Amino acid sequence: MKYAIVYSSKTGNTKLLAQAIGSALPPEDCLYFGPPSPEALTAQRVYVGFWTDKGTCDGETQSFLSSLTNQEVFLFGTAGFGGAPAYFEKILSSVQAHVPASAHVLGGYMCQGKMPQAVRQRYEAMEDSPRRTAMLENFDRALSHPDHEDLDGVKKAVQVL
Ligand SMILES: Cc1cc2nc3c(=O)[nH]c(=O)nc-3n(C[C@H](O)[C@H](O)[C@H](O)COP(=O)(O)O)c2cc1C
Predict the structure, then answer these.
(1) pTM, two decimal places
(2) Would you state the torsion angle of the CA atoms of residues 51, 87, 103, 24, taken in this order, to the nearest 10 degrees?
(3) Does any ligand 1 atom lie closer than 6 A to the CB of residue 80?
(4) How far is the CA of 109 from the centre of ligand 1 (A)?
(5) 3-state secondary structure of 27
(6) Does position 83 have pLDDT exceeding 90, yes or no?
(7) For residue 55, what are the contacts with CB-CB under 8 A and spacing of at least 6?
(8) How far apart, in whole angstroms, are the C-alpha atoms of residue 34 and residue 5?
(9) pLDDT tens for residues 86-122?
(10) Ligand 1 geometric centre to CA of 141 (Å)
(11) How far is Cα 117 from Cα 143, in angstroms, rounded to an integer?
(12) What residue's CA is closest to ligand 1, atom 23?
């Protein structure tokens, strides 16, 4: 089956997932690999990657998802906050709302993604509080992600489809 891998990635985290998916699938069936583009729409199955912006997928991904018609869709993404599977589930369901009803969502996968150092500096400038401590801890936990386990996880998720 012909497929396309489309991803939006500002700082490279989601691109790592896209590359991992590509490495797990037959290269001869890949019609398109790259940023959101109408070229990807001819594939029967589209793997769509996003970075999390305000609790949902970034705007470029939102526009791309709304251009889908009857393709099979697998969603994958990264988010700065991690640790709670329920958080990822919530994001994925809000991303899914951008997929037209005529398309068929096969599943999704998310993991944490490191954030720019400027974000840590913003947290550091905040007044000390349990919230600030939690945000700093989360920032530091994110630094190693996506890691090998995350990349293996997304490969496994697409191999069982
Ligand atoms: C403007 C902006 C908004 C963000 N909003 C969120 C958010 O609402 N929730 C979250 O978990 N992460 C948020 N993040 C963190 C990114 O989603 C995260 O670092 C992601 O892995 C970036 O992916 P990329 O490297 O593929 O661009 C935000 C980052 C930026 C720059």
Answers:
(1) 0.97
(2) 60
(3) yes
(4) 16
(5) helix
(6) no
(7) 90, 91, 94
(8) 7
(9) 999 999 999 999 999 999 999 999 999 999 999 999 9
(10) 14
(11) 10
(12) 51
Separation CA 43–CA 1 (nearest Å): 8
Q: Whose CA is nearest to atom 1 of ligand 1?
A: 53
13 alpha carbon, distance to own chain's centre: 8
Contact predicate 148/156, CB 8 Å? no
Tokens representing residue 109 in the block: 């996968």
Residue 47: phi, psi to the nearest 5?
-95, 120
C-beta of 56 in contact with ligand 1 (< 6 A): no
**Cβ(147) – ligand 1 distance below 6 Å:** no
For residue 50, give the ligand 1 atom closest to its CA.
26
Q: Cis omega (within 30 of 0) on the bond before 146? A: yes
